[in-house]
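To make the argument concrete, we let one protein speak, a sequence paired with a row of structure tokens, as a model reads it:
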Amino acid sequence: MLTRVYPPELVDRVLAVTDTAEVRRRLLPSRLVVYFVLALWLFRGRNCGYVQVLARLTNGLHFQRRAAALAAGEPDGAGWSLPASPSLGEARARVDSDPVRMLFEHAAGPVGVAGQAGVFLHGLRLVQIDGSTSDVADTEKNRAFFGGPSNADGPAPFPKVRWVIAAEAATGALLGASFGPWTTGEPALARDLLPHLGPEMLTLADRNFLSHRLATEVLATGAHLLWRAKANFALAPVRVLDDGSYLAELKPARKGDGPPLTVRVIEYTVHSTTADGQSSSELFCLVTDLLDPEEWPMLDLACAYPTRWGCETVIGHHKTDLGEGRPVLRSKDPEGVAQEMWALFAVYQALARLIGVAADTTGTPPEKISFRRALTAASDSIRAAAFSP
């Protein structure tokens, strides 16, 4: 999977561009180190330390070398041997995060095609925006840079990195990702995703993102929005439309931030009943720039918004499937955390692209293809020859 989505030639190019290729022959060439960093997300758990992961990547080399030597009638030499764990840590630091970030940016993008269920709404590609946090190793450098929550009893056990993603609905493929200190808000990180948005997209976001500034910036990309508003968000009706939705003004925090935005507000109530008969109701207030109720029926938009919760599934894949067995990131400094996060997004996107190809060629809806099974298949299909030192 890794060499199909990130072929060795591509890895060599990004290493050259970032000036992180080795300048002399090493036991751990930079290309191998990049694949090793990616593979750290394929193999997670208590028995998957640095040396164990590298052993899985290079598992078949010894036997291939012995077979070739025996076939040629030559003695079996000592060959390449596994380095110690500290050497692998030093090799990670030598490569840093830029090559891994560039690999992710190369693979990032939608994979859904016309006709796939849940990917488009009336010609607009549905894009989910959401965020989460991950625990990082509790070191002085990480705590100083990332910070974390605290209460009267003191700080949380681990510092946290906050991250935000833009993902295609139905397929879960990442269009872009951003991360930073825990103290950075999700709307601020979402601005890093603006270059990945554009015309013929409809963005879906929850209550944390709605503001005049961010909405204006998203609309400037040509993308549209269908975002939920908080219960206390001021949206006074200007004109009630025939379908029951109404127009309102989304006002800036300050007069100098630009003119108010005319938006359409859709309100509806969701009633639910639990298995034990407990009932509850929740009011939803959606804000969109799609103003024409005939072209964009209220029911179509209200039914499209729940696909935003698919982003929770994407986050779940990052945090539980790829992160299973090791909930805290390994890296002990911010640069290492950055490398680890870009590797997480790169490996996830590689899986999403392969799932997208499978869905397109077989006609199977993307959401029917198990991410966990795809991950298992990828981790079981390591081809050692591709990682030859």
